[in-house]
From TrEMBL:
Biological source species: Pseudomonas parafulva
Molecular function via GO: amino acid transmembrane transporter activity
GO annotations of cellular component type: plasma membrane
Keyword Iron-sulfur: no
Protein name per its UniProtKB record: LysE family translocator
Highest rank taxon of the organism: Bacteria
Keywords: Cell membrane, Membrane, Transmembrane, Transmembrane helix
Predominant location category: membrane
Topological type in the membrane: Multi-pass membrane protein
Amino acid sequence: MLGSYELLSAFILFAFVSSITPGPNNTLLLASGVNFGVRRSIPHAMGISIGFMLMVLGVGFGLGELFKAWPPLYSVLRYVGAAYLLYLAWKIATSGPLSGEAQSTRSPMSFWGAAAFQWVNPKAWVMAVGAITTYTPAQGYAVNVVVIAVLFAFVNLPSVGIWVMFGSALRNVLRNPRWLVLFNVLMAVLLVISLYPLLFVESSFS
């Protein structure tokens, strides 16, 4: 499975770096940690890891080939993803204070919502395609795809969890409603910026 120890080590490093670096998932988790704390954000983080694992399995077992055969299908997915990211940015930018009645009526992204979000997340597609095309040996391919997907989930969960904990650590700093509003607007702007590769960079499926 996975060929050599060197290949396995390289893949784990790739999974860690790609999981922990900034992107839509980690921006959302940082904001969730600030607004909801670690405990309420756990389903969000779990949904990311499990949803991404399913995406890697899908790409490994032929979904990428489907997009290559029908590029317009992927284009539709990209623009649906863009619209959803804009919606999430608006939700974050208009979030209320940390306490009071507004807080009790708000909720973090659910497990299923986070899992589904991976399919419209441009960074997740790059990570999944990179994992399959670069680190999956042809010998024993099916088994290796499963191993890659499961290992990625195990590396991904603690990596994205760091963003939740960092956000939670900022809660006391952001108790001032003015600072919280500024933070949420900044997170919304970062999400909008993350649309650049989705809309303006040539797709590998084109």
